[in-house]
Request: fold
Amino acid sequence: MSKSSALSTHVLDTARGRPAAGVAVELWRMEPAPALVTRATTNADGRTDAPLLDAASFQPGRYELRFAVGAYFGEGFLDQVVLNVGLRAGEGHYHVPLLCSPWSYSTYRGS
Reply:
């Protein structure tokens, strides 16, 4: 049995040890040509209020998550963190956390 697919994210400020509230996030579908899917801003828990893609609007393909971390930190090395991901149907929930500071970031596929 395949699982419904969806996409969510959250942002953690590793420099301050807390969720990153107020980070602008954009989701772009890259195929067949780049197109903005949605914009959101992280809440006090560092999460968007709704999934970036819910099961009803999910389409498999290549996507970019764009995080405006430079505006959040106000200084530092990073400006925009761009994560290019491939999403497949039937793979269940995709959760993509971003752990960041003004100088570095890491990510993984969460649950």
Remarks:
- The chain has one domain: 3-96.
- The longest strand covers residues 3-13.
- The helical segments are 69-73.
- The CA atoms of residues 5 and 92 lie 4 Å apart.
